[in-house]
Amino acid sequence: MAISLSVVLMLGIVLVVLIRGGSLKGGPAVVAVLFGFFLASTGMAPSINRFMNSIADTINQISF
């Protein structure tokens, strides 16, 4: 839960920065948000979630 919340927050911040920076307009941003919303209700959602969790685990195992 904490990982998914932080990813949502990070992607939201990136989206706001792209919109304010002018490299992404409002219409395509809404389409991107709706695409993510509807993608979350498909059968691919568990696979995407597992993939993102494996990436997070891999990053977590990196020691500096």
SSE arrangement:
Elements lengths: L1 H20 L4 H14 L5 H17 L3
Proportion of residues in helical segments: over 70%
Number of helices: 3
Proportion in β-strands:
under 5%
The Cα radius of gyration reads 14 Å
Secondary structure category: mainly alpha
The count of DSSP E runs of length 2 or more, i.e. the number of strands, is: 0
- Low-pLDDT segments: none
What is the terminal-to-terminal distance? 25 Å
Largest sheet: none
Shape: flat
The succession of helices and strands, N to C, reads HHH
Return the average pLDDT rounded to an integer: 83
Quick structural overview:
The protein is mostly helical. It has helices at about 1-20, 25-40, 45-60. It contains three helices and no strands.
Could you characterize the architecture of this molecule?
Keywords: Membrane, Transmembrane, Transmembrane helix. It comes from Streptomyces mutomycini. The chain crosses the membrane at residues 31-48. This is Secreted protein. With 64 residues, the protein is mainly α. The protein has helices spanning 2-21, 26-39, 45-61. The model has no long low-confidence stretch (mean pLDDT 83).
